[in-house]
Amino acid sequence: MGEEMDTEYDVIVLGTGITECILSGLLSVDGKKVLHIDKQDHYGGESASVNLSQLYSQFKKNPIGKDEIESKFGKDRDWNVDLIPKFLMANGELTNILVHTDVTRYVEFKQVSGSYVFKQGKIYKVPATEMEAISSPLMGIFEKRRMKKFLEWISSCKEDEISTHQGLDLDKNTMDEVYYKFGLGNSTKEFIGHAMALWTNDDYLQQPARPSYERVLLYCQSVARYGKSPYLYPLYGLGELPQGFARLSAIYGGTYMLDTPIEKVLYTDNDSENGNFEGVQTKLGTFKAPLVIADPTYFSHKCKSTGQRVIRAICILNHPVPNTGDADSLQIIIPQSQVGRKNDIYIAIVSDAHNVCSKGHYLAIISTIVETEAPHIELEPAFKLLGPIEEKFMGIADLFEPKEDGSKDNIYLSKSYDASSHFESMTDDVKDIYFRVTGHPLVLKKRNDEDAQEE
């Protein structure tokens, strides 16, 4: 195999996280000759889906044996647990990329049943329709009318029609000024900002309104697409996404090598600090390319901490979450102000309906930004909402981002996955790296039928 393999490529990609696999697929479709390498023997990198015995060995000092796991939780192979939980927005950019690249042929999605928000000790369903909004206990009757006017403005505002702006300038007015214009109260602002725009804290209030406007619009369009909730989730877990893009890359001639550690990174003048990327040395040989795309673990010296850490708790339940109408999947957002924090707490819940756990079980994955010296205690409000927990796995991760944009040394690095509950920030990173690597923005074009037939 080593003798027959090509040694020259257009792009080398290191790591099979979702970000890296999407870029590998997109560049392969563009006609680039891509070599994709991962030191691990499975797809997904930091964002892999693992079975229970892998989960135990990763998080527990004294992991229990496979027989004990199976007697307690059913077959090990029935479990596909996401290490980093996120949902897809039905109308979001990742969904658009999946549709336009036809990766939807390899990955099947199921809608998430509901989105909930925590308020004054209870959880409430985020209204998905006008009917639900009218009957929702989240707002009083007058506030509902004001909220309706706000949402009408969101859906009717057109960039080139000043009359639809209602005197607001999205780039000059802050989001707080927009709320004031519609007379919305604090709890409604919190609900819109955190459960619809999905901001993790309140910094957005003093910033220009455009990003918030776009996020609320995306939320509304995503709900409108299928009803119930704005979220989608792949059957068999998020590990299906990198594999889907790997298959796409392979169809277009991409080469994959798993379980292949990098022995040495090669630079043009043998000086790792000043040289440009030239290639990598592995047990299967030396491979060269003018540029590399990688996750932060491959070039940690070229990354810096964002100063934030994320805590995630993976909980196994043998019952649906109380007060959710026995939903098979949902998201719960605990806004920071409700529990005296600076950052929201997210809970993503999936079940055997998504082929990620054995029958009768549920997975609840909690994530937030660490704020204190006792991060485990910070998750208490979320644990209380879940009811009895059968097993709990906890991990803390530092968030990293590249120090430079890659233009100097042709090393393009992705960012760590944040605490948010969806893929929009990750997709922004994909588009940003794509632009820096190719020099032009990612334009999503549908593939024509002839291409598909030739395969």
Automatic annotation (TrEMBL):
<dbReference type="GO" id="GO:0015031">
    <property type="term" value="P:protein transport"/>
</dbReference>
<dbReference type="InterPro" id="IPR018203">
    <property type="entry name" value="GDP_dissociation_inhibitor"/>
</dbReference>
<dbReference type="GO" id="GO:0007264">
    <property type="term" value="P:small GTPase-mediated signal transduction"/>
</dbReference>
<dbReference type="GO" id="GO:0016192">
    <property type="term" value="P:vesicle-mediated transport"/>
</dbReference>
<dbReference type="GO" id="GO:0005737">
    <property type="term" value="C:cytoplasm"/>
</dbReference>
<protein>
    <recommendedName>
        <fullName>Rab GDP dissociation inhibitor</fullName>
    </recommendedName>
</protein>
<dbReference type="InterPro" id="IPR036188">
    <property type="entry name" value="FAD/NAD-bd_sf"/>
</dbReference>
<comment type="similarity">
    <text>Belongs to the Rab GDI family.</text>
</comment>
<dbReference type="InterPro" id="IPR000806">
    <property type="entry name" value="RabGDI"/>
</dbReference>
<dbReference type="GO" id="GO:0005093">
    <property type="term" value="F:Rab GDP-dissociation inhibitor activity"/>
</dbReference>
<dbReference type="Pfam" id="PF00996">
    <property type="entry name" value="GDI"/>
</dbReference>
